[in-house]
Design brief:
Blueprint lengths: L13 E5 L2 E4 L2 E3 L3 E3 L4 E3 L10 H8 L5 E6 L12 H5 L3 E5 L1 H13 L4 E6 L2
Parallel strand pairs: 6-7, 6-8
Antiparallel strand pairs: 1-2, 2-3, 4-5, 4-8
Length: 122
Amino acid sequence: MKLHQSKVGNLNQFTSYGEDFVEVNRQRHQGPVLVSGEQVLPWSARSLESLAPADIEAILALNPEVVLIGTGKHLRFGHPQRYAALSAARIGVDFLDNGALCRTFNILSAEGRQVVAAVLYA
């Protein structure tokens, strides 16, 4: 699905998404990625069930105040132990399907929030 583009300064914005990709500023990314207002990085995570401490450390390195975890086409929830380090750092965590993640990220980043999108597909 293509999203309505409203570029906010030099911040990253999701411009499209599908079952196996997201587009950030019209550049397609397949596979897990971390997206902040300034960066798009490959992410070592492969699934919600296999989130490891190193996957969460990669998120923490981006200094977010809010983390949106995309769970693919359908909404699923991760086990709290898998993301306990985010909660301990007082970082908000929300699970969304990837379409909702893209829309929510665009809104929060346009508001100037330090948001990180962690995109998975399964």
